[in-house]
Amino acid sequence: MSRKIAVLGATGSVGKSTLDLLEGRTGGKDGLFRVVLISAHRRGKELYAAGTKFQVPHLAWTGLPNSPSDFSVGGSYSPRIHLGAQGLLEALEESDPDLVLNAITGAAGLEASAWTLEQGKDLLLANKESLVVAGPLLRRLADQSGSQILPVDSEHAAIHQCLFGQAGEGKIREGLKKVYLTASGGPFWDASPQVMERARPEDALKHPTWSMGPRISIGSATMMNKAFEILEAHHLFGLREEQIEVLVHRQSIVHSMVEFVDGSLLAQLGVPDMRFPILYCLGFPERLRYEKSGFNLASFSSLSFEPSDFDRFPALRLAKECLRLGGDSGAVLNAADEVATQAFLEGRISFPGILKTVEKILKKHKTTPIQSIAQVLETDRQTREKTCQSLVSV
Ligand SMILES: NC(=O)c1ccc[n+]([C@@H]2O[C@H](COP(=O)([O-])OP(=O)(O)OC[C@H]3O[C@@H](n4cnc5c(N)ncnc54)[C@H](OP(=O)(O)O)[C@@H]3O)[C@@H](O)[C@H]2O)c1
């Protein structure tokens, strides 16, 4: 029987790759999936086109257009259209998916992640910010409802693959020594401080190995993306700070590694294309066939690994600080970074100004334990306001 899937953030980089993979796997009596809901924020036309292609009964358009008539509705396709952030939750309720792939960018993805876990549905999570801002709450919801969180993020999907099938849950924890998250180093790994000071948005958006949306591309250049992945690994796999190490691996072929107490290391390899971790999550625990999966390891004459540089890329240090602080510090880190990244993209602050701003905001913040999603959203709102007023421009 086909599984009902919701694809949130369907017009973005991960969302579009997901829909590509679903093509040919939906519809008919043999289709593995049925797409019951897709969402977008601003790109209404693209949302409608994808809805038409997959005959999706529910479309959520969160960017508050004037009215649903903004869609060029015609023909026999007449989906139910849900507007705004509240409309997305209503669309989830009405479409009742079995699994939700959340590829919304930023803290805006949090409520959908929480809804999915509360309802006991499986969450295929690309929106790492959900875990960065409210990891302990989401973990609790998953444990209470029995939902699975399957990481779409390539590094965490790699760790999941290395761990799955090793032993019973408890034994994995005992046998696991540490994980190595690999990082490409982004476009400025070898750059001088002067180059970074002069960097324009188009320079920072040029990722050496991955093709991604703007926020995560800038996050790869500042290494804030890797900082988020440290927090993500902590919440997903229950790892302590000293069990998570970042290694710079310029080729982006080894997606991450796991070291066990007996000294064995397991790595997961593949070309840098998000379709592979997405497909892994869609099929889990089965493996779905993929005709484009050719990987010629012989074409890589060397694979290199270097330690990460906490001085030139202070985001990694900030992530470890948030791990120690706990509470709402992750929500503050994310909100400040979202605002500062946007300011850089709009030419209002320099590239080094992003992390200087985030560091300043985090330093001033008094950590509070988090009790509810509403509280996290309020912290997010207040931090955005403060960050807008405290941007460091140099
Ligand atoms: N791209 C990658 O290779 C990659 C890898 C690992 C993890 N991730 C994670 O996956 C998530 C998506 O990344 P991406 O690169 O696909 O981003 P993206 O290309 O910018 O797409 C983001 C999607 O979210 C929607 N969106 C934007 N703001 C929203 C809001 N306020 N409320 C609801 N929806 C909103 C966008 O709609 P519109 O198109 O209508 O604006 C779009 O569909 C991020 O959390 C990222 O960290 C991405």
> What structural class do helix, strand and pairing data support?
alpha/beta
Poorly predicted tracts of residues? none
Count of helices? 16
State the distance separating the first and last CA atoms.
57 Å
User: Main sheet: which strands, in order across?
Assistant: 4-3-2-1-5-6-7
Q: What would you note in describing this structure?
A:
The chain has helices spanning 13-22, 44-54, 84-95, 110-118, 129-145, 154-163, 169-175, 193-198, 201-204, 214-222, 224-237, 275-283, 315-325, 329-345, 351-364, 373-389; strands at 3-8, 33-40, 58-61, 80-83, 99-102, 122-125, 149-151, 176-183, 244-248, 254-260, 265-269, 306-307. By secondary structure, the protein is of the alpha/beta class. The chain folds into three domains: 3-151, NAD(P)-binding Rossmann-like Domain (Rossmann fold), CATH 3.40.50.720; 158-314, no CATH class; 326-394, Orthogonal Bundle (Rna Polymerase Sigma Factor, Chain: A), CATH 1.10.1740.10. It is globular and about 60 Å long. The mean pLDDT is 94. It binds NADP nicotinamide-adenine-dinucleotide phosphate. Residues 9-15, 40-43, 62, 103-105, 108, 126-129, 153, 210, 212-214, 216, 274 line the site of NADP nicotinamide-adenine-dinucleotide phosphate. NADP nicotinamide-adenine-dinucleotide phosphate binds at residues 9-15, 40-43, 62, 103-105, 108, 126-129, 153, 210, 212-214, 216, 274.
